[in-house]
Amino acid sequence: MRTCTFCGNQIPDGNTSFCPQCGTKLSPAEMVSSAPSYPPPLSAPVTPTTSGLAIASLICGLLFFIFPSAAAAVVMGHVSRSDIRRSGGRKTGAGMAMVGLVLGYLGISVIPIMIIAAIAIPNLLRAKMMANEASAVSSLRTLNAAALMYSATYGKFPAELSNLGPTAAPTSPSAEGADLVDIVLASGSKSGYVFHYKSSQMTDSDGKDEVNSYTITADPVVPGSTGKRHFFTDQTGVIRMEVFKAAMTDSPPIK
Is 89 exposed, middle or buried, given 0-12, 13-18 or 19+ CB atoms closer than 10 A? Predict the structure, then answer.
């Protein structure tokens, strides 16, 4: 419908040039038929895409034990989540970015601990080996002193290492159990070392067997882990040492 600007009459759409009520000539704008209005065409639906940064953050997060990857996972995780929020639904992958962030922060917090452990553990093992070796030398000195005391008491060296230890029953010390060393050392194993005692016998003029010499070796239970030095001693009381191989009578003495 058109409206006459002079009388306000509603004029049906058509090609007339004058108002049928007042005869006023219609302006060109009033002569133009009003075209029906239609809503704008609907745009095609947008298919959301997965954020590449979110995927990269997840991959780097899975490699969190490598410091650069952990840091990259955190950076790309934050950037991707920000892009996804601003995309208005055109990008997805917030969950992957969150997993990458968590793993990245986990790596950043764990890696310093791993570095400290990598430095500290070898030092602790080295200190433990040195302590075991010092204990082995001390035990050999104890065994030499006990063997001399045994010889002074019973007239011979002990036939076995267990003879220097306590007796099984609560009885007085004897040649079978002189009670000169503790039961742990008498068992032949202490502080990461194994002690092997070997005696040598001879027959005297009366036909009696006498022990006139002995050897003791001390070897680490796990070479390179519980100790790296091997020790040897005998009735002379001299303690000898070798590194990563068994010590013998001609090995250099320890200082």
Answer: exposed
pLDDT value at 208 more than 80:
no
d(CA 153, CA 247): 30
Strands 91-92 and 49-50: parallel
Q: What is the pLDDT of residues 90-146, one digit of tens each?
A: 888 888 989 999 988 888 888 778 788 888 888 888 999 999 999 999 999 999 999
Compute the distance between CA of residue 157 and CA of residue 163 in angstroms, rounded to an integer: 9
Question: Phi and psi dihedrals of 201, rounded to 5?
Answer: -115, 155
3-state helix vs strand vs coil in the chain, percent to 5: 40, 20, 40
Structural domain boundaries in the chain: 1-29, 49-120, 127-167+174-243
Q: What are the backbone angles phi and psi of residue 78, rounded to the nearest 5°?
A: -65, -45
Which tokens go with 240?
A: 């000898």
